[in-house]
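Consider today's protein:

***
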Amino acid sequence: MFDSLALLVFPLLMIFAALADLFTMTIPNRVSLVLIAAYFILALYLRVPLATVGLHVSCGLAMLALTFMMFQMGWIGGGDAKLAAATALWLGWPSLFEYGLVASLIGGALTVAILALRHYDLPEKLLSVGFVAKLAEKNGGVPYGIALALAGLMIYPHTGVWTGLAHL
C-alpha cells in the first residue's frame, strides 16, 4: 500500500503545481515543502545510502541557487524556483541536464503559445474565464511551473527513486 502511494506522491504534486500555476499564476509553498519532506521519507523507507541522499540534496541546493538568481533577474517566479529545486532533489544529478533541457523546450513552446494567444483579440466570452483573461494580459507572466512539472513527470520514471519503488 505504502509503495503504491509513494509512486503517486511526486506525480500528483507535479500535476497540482502545474494546475495551480495555470489557474492562479502561483505555486503554493506547501507543494515544494511536501515534495521535500516526501523525498526524505521515501529515502528512509528505501534505505537510500546517506551519500546518495547527500548528492540529491546538493543537486536541489544547486538548482535553488540557480533558480534564485533567475528569480532575482525577473526571469521566473519564486514558486517556479522552489518547484525546480524540490524537483531536482527528487531527480538528482544524473537526470538534471535532461530535466533542464526538457523544461526549457516545453517552457519555450508554452511561451510562444501564450505570446501567440496575446497577439489576438480574444472573444469577450473567453476572456470572462479568469485564468484565460490572466494568460491573455499583454504584459502578464507565463505559468512556467507547467513546463517544470511536465518535465519532472517525463524524467521521473527514469530516476533511482522510481526504480527503487517499482522494484519493491
Observations:
- The mean pLDDT is 91.
- Residues 2-166 form one domain.
